[in-house]
Amino acid sequence: MSQNFRIENVGLINKDKKLCFKFNGKKYFGYEGDTLASALLANGVHLVGRSFKYHRPRGFFGAGVDEPYAIVQLYRNNETEPNIKATEQELFEGLEAKSVNCWPSVNFDIGAINNFLKIFLPAGFYYKTFMWPKSFWYRIYEPFIRKAAGLGVASIKHDKERYEHKYEHCDLLIAGSGPSGLSSAYAAAKNGAKVILAEDKPRFGGSLLTSDVNIGNQSGKEWAEGIIAELKTMPNVVVKNRSQIFGYYDHNMLVMSEKVSDHLPATKKYHPNKRLWYIRAKEVLISSGSIERPIVFGNNDTPGVMLSSAAKEYLKVYGVLVGRNPLIFTNNDSGYETAIEFKKHGVDPIVLDSRKNPESEIINEAKNIGINIKNSYVVVAAQGYKKVKSADIASISDDKKQLGKIENIQCDCICVSGFWTPTIHLASQSGNKTKFKEEIDAFIPGQSKQNERTLGAANGVFSLEETLKTSFAAGSELSKKITENDNEVLIPNVVEKKSSKHDKFWCVPLPEGKNYKRFLDFQNDVSVSDVEIALKEGYRSIEHVKRYTTLGMATDQGKTSNLNGLQLVSEIENKVVPAVGHTTFRPPYTPVSIGAIVGREIGKHSKPTRKSPMHAWHEKNNAVFVDAGVWLRPRYYKRGNENLFEGSKREAKNVRTNVGVCDVTTLGKIDIKGPDAAELLNRVYTNAWLKLPVGKARYGVMLREDGIVMDDGTTTRISENHYHMTTTTAQAANVLSHLEYYLQLVWPELNANVVSTTEQWAGAAIAGPKSRDLLQKLFPNSNVSNEGLPFMGYMEDDLYGVKARIFRISFSGELAYEINVESDNGNFMWEKIMEVGEEFKIQPYGTEALSTLRIEMGHVAGSELDGRTIPYDNALESLVSKKKDFIGKRSLQRTAFIADDRQRIVGVVPLDKKTSIPEGSHLVKDANAPLPNPKLGHISASCWSVEYDNPFSLAILKDGKNMIGEKLFVMSPLKNKVIPVEIVSSHYVDPKGERVRS
Amino acid sequence: MTLPIETHLLQACVSEPVKPVLDSVVTFGAGHFYVSQSDKGEMVMGGDLDGYNSYAQRGNLPTLQHVLTEGIAMMPFLSKLKMLRTWGGIMDMSMDGSPIIDKTHIEGLYLNCGWCYGGFKATPASGWTFAHTIAQDRVHELNAGYSLNRFSTGHLIDEKGLGTKTWIS
Amino acid sequence: MLYIKCPHCGMRPQIEFSYGGDASVKRPELNKDVSDQDWDDFVYNRKSLRGKHLELWQHISGCRQWIKVERDTSTHEISRTFKADEEVA
Fold first, then answer.
1. Counting C-beta atoms within 10 Å of the first and last residue's C-beta, which end of chain B has fewer, N or C?
2. Do A299 and A281 have their domain in common?
């Protein structure tokens, strides 16, 4: 198809490189440097989609980030992405895009029937229209709304793209590369400041690319190119295009999303799709410019109605005419600039100016080149369904209330300019309280909140000369403060045409007898009448009006609609606009890819993985791993076709009959040193610690101040002032912080130091009746007899030349030892244990067997010490000292904690000795009682007892002390199980603890 | 009157609207993430607190980054969507993670607070029992457990077992 | 992300720290009788100030020191930071 609307020798695109693309299945071509929007417009395509609520035909309204309509489904490299703004998407070879919100096609859209039913979809339609009758909501209304809702289609495939994060510090971060961004960056760079200059578009220069101005002896565009070229050569400057600063967070942290690959047919190897920059800036200069705002009139959403600045940009940047018969509707001089550009390229525009007798250099120029200008004239309504065909226009009275006789004139586009709205989002996000500037009918930033300053059009300054002056000065001043350099930069002369005052006019009244839809928010289909209804129904706060009507809540976040919405509310409420106030600006300024926000921390990289030094051995020996926090631990070592149940049973049985070895490296280890180490332990643990001899270990329980058990473990006195504390794997980091808290803040007088040694030691537990024989073989020079190394004893020895610590402690309830060696020797230790242990039929065992062994012994672990139990609940009250004070002791006196029927740990056995009991099940007295069936307790841990060959569980049960022998029911609605059980002692195996002492 | 409550900051966000892909609320307990799709098509998502006392109603991106990381772990396709809007709310975090619905020692002053970052599904029942408490000046059996003095007596309702560190979510 | 001046290490991003709550809470002395009210105030009751709030942070991925931070809870502005043993005037 030929490009009927492309003009020769104009624009910044590369006409030497043609690119083919498809839109709605049809083939077109454009050029390198086009956006999808400019390429479609060059081909005369104006109909791109359907609106959200009424499915009205929609075209292009803007040329960038403010675009409310032109949302497409993009297909790139066998992936699809919803909700892409055609005005932002750069063209690449093979691009494919489709319209959204239309079925069966954009030209014939069944949803458009809503347009004729619009009485059913007024403001607040989510909240009221579909409320009655109630049953209709689920059956009819909601499915209907849901089907109609949404824009594009989400791909449910995994995202193959890669996203990365970058962290930066800089002296000055400058948002926007228009005249103020360039001049402040240049001045700051010359002073040696570290500068980051960010531009969201592919091309630097902002308004200089399209405005007819001279700086020095160059055109604005040439000047911009020169500055950028020089900045790029400076080592202290980073300039980034395709990079949007979208959030201004606390303490001058800003976040920028850089599109690295979206303009390419596919992401290059080793390149990310997007890069997210977290930037901590000393100073921030916001030079984000302004966005033209529309004037509201009838059918102002018809394809072919667009912002006058967008029409100018399509012409000057892309060499595209958005129409051959344009009508320009303006309340200020900007419309004339667009008209002049049309005229220069052989197109005759008509200008309607709402003002009576405006005079300025620009208007004079327009008159001089013969542009047809109608003063005190407005567009009443656009005519045409899928494209503007003509416009109803009329003269308007000076008070803007009365329309003259309606005339219809032919046109193929309507370029509208309602003056400019400063882009104050970033300043507002920083916490800046904005203020209303009467002269421009818009908000500008007020007093700086963080180290931010807003310049140029974003600050409501529309004169180029003043913008350059203030921006050069700001760049110099702020950089001088940081670098203490003061290099003079000459501010160039500016030649620009002076403009006249704009007209405070934003909405064309309805002619009598006509009921045109006049849209404020184009994507969410919010019209003037919707806001009127909301106000009539009593919504006053602008935040409520926004939510009720959904004004400004579409994917453009109201960039073209917010201010007109405010004007309307202020007019109806008879308040000034600043009294109405605006809704809060929150990040992001423009939608940001969730993939980019998340970055590389996905899949296996979402959390760090910790492995013990013996991990490779476990892998080689068919370990099946389980996540224990961020650690990977062997759950069992699979033999042949064994499943978890069979394998763990075999391993646990072997511990009970021979000897097993378990990797316990993950246990938290804390070294405590100093003359007051014992005193610290005595305050932290519930039991007494002052008399523990050197070479002995002790089991301890520590509480939080609220009396709840925090953790348990053994601590060993290595030497006079040196203790080795172990914690559970899960609580290792918390316990260290806990100790540091008390040492640094509460009891700084204690002379003791703590440090984590978890990574320094590899640990192996050897457990079972043959463990002593094995230990003796491993350490032939030591006396490891019951007298030489008694229960809770400690010794040091040499394991084939490697220093080892040997603790006689037991979690399994069997005769057991724990050997620690320095981590680097972990694998050596493990292999030696396996080698020497062969004659004792040693087998490694994993966490599942470990659990089985501790459960049937009634030893508590994380599932009982769950942050809700006190020592008594865990049958640990004998460890609670009555004599001394310790952390949390005072809380143990509370009524609930000393109640006679306090919950307590018990054992649970199914009556049939066969049915496994699901963990988390509830215990009840009567399985058939009406709901809510009073819960007596819950199952904390379950296993298959290898000692008795039947299921066994631990439970925390109300009045557990007096429940032994009771018959109760276990209920698991999740697993649909009701199991009759008997309550037994939690010490199911070896209740007297003879084995560990044997 | 000093309450066992701290004020914290919770952020949430919505994606751009897409055609229906999810027809129920899904929560990911281990990752602490929730998601549902609104009737407009936006995916509504949230999870962790920012983790320090705040009334500012503004949060920081690393928290949302973490929340969305958990989201992608559960539903990888979320990666291709775009985050449209975020906001930060004020959360009254009680010291055991459960609300307080009770009368007080001050005549005519009743409490219904400490809902932490949840409770929307309990709103009808809490409203009903609270109304009962106010109308009859005594607690209903359904809110009897949610008393203010449970912190003194130790009758805590701490489902997560996190205790008084309300900021750990 | 907050930017916190560790009195030992200098300016560091928030991710290096973990939060520790209201720093004005004082633990009752050991081995002394404490009334129920005083104990509840220590364990549970919080002023939860809007405005300047003295709070604890631990530089957990740095020097591991607990520090006191004076921060405005309505704006997140940090005015001063102190070492654990420094008097806050």
1. N
2. no
* CB spacing of C3 vs A885 below 8 angstroms: no
Give, to the nearest 10 degrees, the angle between helix A644-657 and helix A847-857.
60
pLDDT of residue A130: 47
CB burial of B53-74 (b: ≥16 within 10 Å; e: otherwise) equals bbbbebbbbbbbbbbbbbbbbe
CA trace torsion B113, B115, B117, B123 (10° rounding): -110
A150 and A272 both lie in a single domain = no
pLDDT band at A752 (very low <50, low <70, confident <90, very high): very high
The domain in which residue A21 lies consists of: 1-157
A433 in C contact zone (CB under 8 Å): no
| Distance between CA atoms of residues B150 and B132, nearest Å | 20
Which residues does A63 contact at the CB level (< 8 Å), separation at least 6? A35, A37, A38, A87, A307, A309, A310, A313, A314, A317
- Assigned domain for A483 exists: yes
Dist CA B143 CA A10 (whole Å):
74
For A899-927, the pLDDT digits (tens) are 999 999 999 999 999 999 999 999 999 99
What ipTM does the predicted assembly reach? 0.99
Nearest to A152 among B18, B61, B77 (CB): B18
Instruction: Select from B53, B111, B151 the residue whose CB has the most chain C CBs within 10 Å, as the one to mutate to test that interface.
Output: B53
Of B16, B20, B77, the CB nearest to A157: B77
DSSP string, A102-114: -SB-SSSBGGGHH
Which of A683, A745, A891 is opposite residue C84, by nearest beta carbon?
Answer: A745
A interface test, pick of B23, B35, B58 with most A CB neighbours within 10 Å = B58
Residue C62 lies in a domain: yes
Any CB–CB contact under 8 A between C36 and chain B?
A: yes
Beta bridge partners of A793: A696
Among B52, B62, B167, beta carbon nearest to C15: B62
CB neighbours of residue A934 within 10 Å: 10
Is residue C62 predicted with pLDDT exceeding 70?
yes
Q: Which chains touch B (3 or more CB pairs under 8 A)?
A: A, C
Q: Which residue has the tokens 């080698």?
A: A835
Q: Is residue A28 within 8 Å of A93, Cβ to Cβ?
A: no
Cα torsion A618, A622, A628, A631: sign: positive
For residue B49, the chain C residue with the least C-alpha distance is C19
Candidates 1.10.3430.10, 3.40.309.10, 3.30.9.10, 3.40.630.10; correct CATH number of B5-92? 3.30.9.10
Residues of A in contact with B73 (CB under 8 A): 602-603, 606
Q: What is the pLDDT of residue A116?
A: 54
pLDDT averaged per 10 residues in sequence order, chain B, 169 residues:
95 94 90 90 94 96 96 94 95 95 96 86 90 96 95 94 87
**How many Cβ atoms are within 10 Å of A994's Cβ, its own excluded?**
10
Answer yes or no: is A883 within a domain.
no
DSSP codes joined into one string, B35-56:
EEE-TTSPEEEEEEEEEEE--S
Listed range (A48-52, A158-162, A935-939) with the worst mean pLDDT:
A48-52
Residues with Cβ within 8 Å of residue A194, at least 6 apart in sequence: A169, A170, A171, A172, A236, A237
Cβ contact A926:A743 at 8 Å: no
Q: Do B82 and A594 touch (CB under 8 A)?
A: yes
H or E stretch at A620: helix A615-620
Distance CA B90, CA B112 (A): 15
Residue A109 has pLDDT above 70, yes or no: no
B109 close to B139: Cβ distance less than 8 angstroms? no
Residue A753 has pLDDT above 60, yes or no: yes
pLDDT tens-digit map of A871-901: 999 999 999 999 999 999 999 999 999 999 9
Q: What does the block give as tokens for A786? A: 């019951």
